[in-house]
Design a protein that fits this description.
The protein folds into two domains: 192 residues, Ribonuclease Z/Hydroxyacylglutathione hydrolase-like (Metallo-beta-lactamase, Chain A), CATH 3.60.15.10; 99 residues, Arc Repressor Mutant, subunit A, CATH 1.10.10. Helices cover 35% and strands 19% of the residues. The protein contains nine helices and 13 strands. A hairpin with an 8-residue loop joins strand 1 and strand 2. The longest helix is centred in the last third of the chain and has 25 residues.
């Protein structure tokens, strides 16, 4: 086995979200590097300071922060490390830097997409909660861009793997010497990660298909010899290839379920969501519509369903 320089120090922080605690990770070598930064709450900051102290580290000792993706439970505390260099994927930039034009497009994107999906007007108040989520994303300046194949500065044994799907800017860190993977929310042991809908990075781009991307990113990891996986949530685990294959099988089963619905009658994305998640659609609309449109994107991308527009609404059907 090759020499391993960086010991991985987990830091576990509370969140106010249903997913529970979130993990950050610390490397201590010639540079002190934090991987992800928790959620912006007093409880998380106190837990961060306490666990850093147990490692002999003060907040001002953090030299650099690598962010796996932009979600608020992974970026929130970056503002508490004002001297740290922030690193991440280029598509992290508009979220982290609160790009006003991008945020305006974010709202317009969801309004237009929900209209196309046939979402009733009473559900549009969920756009307000989406705007609140934007406020909780940590704010800072992306100083170092990390893309496929890059090495983490001062920690060259770690290679960047682009793993979009759960987020467009999602990256994972891989160490060939022992197969260790710091995977953010890309691969979790206890739950399947949600590929979440996002506006395109640039105004002239088509809407991303996160479910299709997520499946590609999962299959991509099958090409790597993986050892311990250090996730953003839940426990550390091994045998990642077996888990990936189970996740892909489950996704295909869900897509087949949606296809069977469309064999009965043509439906909008919202109507599919109602059938797929009758108990959760009211309380978790954002997540359920993302999951639904993800399966429809996959079926459309693979040529298993056809679509047409009636007015502004997009209708999905199976052409027998």
């Amino acid at each position: 086995m090759k020499t391993i320089k960086d010991r991985i120090h987990p830091i576990t922080l509370p969140t106010p979200y249903a997913v529970g605690d979130v993990h950050a990770y610390l490397f201590k070598s010639d540079k002190v590097t934090l991987i992800d930064a928790g959620v912006k709450t007093t409880e998380a900051w106190e837990a961060m300071k306490d666990q850093l102290a147990k490692l002999g580290i003060k907040p001002e000792d953090i030299d650099q922060i690598v962010l796996t993706h932009h979600h608020p439970d992974h970026t929130g505390l970056v503002e508490y490390f004002p001297d740290a260099i922030i690193m991440g994927h280029p598509k992290l930039r508009p979220w982290l830097e609160k790009d006003e034009e991008f945020i305006r497009r974010h709202e317009t994107f969801f309004k237009e997409m929900y209209e196309e999906a046939g979402v009733p007007s009473e559900y549009l108040n969920t756009l307000n909660s989406a705007k609140k989520t934007l406020r909780y994303i940590g704010q800072g300046r992306l100083q170092v861009e990390l893309t496929e194949g890059d090495r983490v500065p001062s920690h060259e044994e770690w290679t960047i793997i682009e793993t979009p799907g759960h987020a467009q800017c999602h990256i994972s860190l891989y160490r060939e010497a022992d197969g260790a993977l710091i995977g953010g929310d890309h691969l979790l042991f206890h739950i399947s990660s949600n590929p979440l809908l996002e506006p395109p990075f640039s105004a002239n781009e088509a809407r991303p298909r996160p479910q299709v991307q997520y499946r590609d990113s999962l299959e991509k990891l099958l090409n790597y010899q993986l050892g311990d996986v250090y996730p953003g949530h839940g426990r550390r685990f091994t045998e990642a290839h077996q888990l990936i294959k189970r996740r892909i099988t489950r996704q295909e089963e869900r897509a087949d379920q949606v296809k069977e619905m469309l064999k009965q009658k043509p439906l909008t994305a919202f109507e599919v969501c109602q059938k797929l998640f009758p108990k959760q659609i009211e309380s978790q609309f954002g997540l359920t519509i993302s999951e639904t449109m993800g399966q429809l994107d996959y079926l459309e991308f693979t040529g298993q369903v056809d679509t047409k527009h009636i007015g502004k609404r997009k209708i999905y059907y199976v052409n027998r």
